[in-house]
Amino acid sequence: LRSPDGRWVADGPGDAPATAGKGQARVEDLKVNNPLGLDDGNPWQEWFSDLETRSEIRKDVLRTFPEVDYFRSAETQDRMTDLLFIWCKLAPEVGYRQGMHELLAPLLWFVDYDSLPTPDDRGQQDGDGGNDELAHLVLAREWVEHDTWALFAAVMQSAKIFYD
């Protein structure tokens, strides 16, 4: 997440994007754009709310299928946290509810399990084209989060009534 004053604050591993830095925020009115301000138009209010939401999501993600090693990896936990946070921002009428991580988890696991490594990861320089290229295009590991998002969003269109 990027704070309203332009600083990068991550709740997981990783570096700030190259464009992050001080002085990028709107600071025209410090009475409104102030981390201690309570004004409804204060961008910091949403930012603190987002941090709280991500923290709640992360707690549930950390408890996801504790007996399965796949869900203990930091990369998997980061992916799940990001996907669930995006869902709650795009569906504010539902938001995040406990149990959504249980719907997302098997989708991510299956999509990741069925994904194919890039040709460089497999040690192949030249492909024979045809089916291999098509399979890689459809099942590329680099699109695991995207494919999981598409499935999760479709599932949630039907399942969100259970979270009202």
TrEMBL record:
A Pfam family assignment: RabGAP-TBC
Domain of life: Eukaryota
Disordered: region residues: 1-25
Entry keyword Transferase: no
Domain annotation Rab-GAP TBC: ranges: 37-164
GO molecular function: GTPase activator activity
Family annotation (Gene3D superfamilies): putative rabgap domain of human tbc1 domain family member 14 like domains
Chain coiled-coil ranges: none
Name this polypeptide is given: Rab-GAP TBC domain-containing protein
Organism from which the protein derives: Rhodotorula graminis (strain WP1)
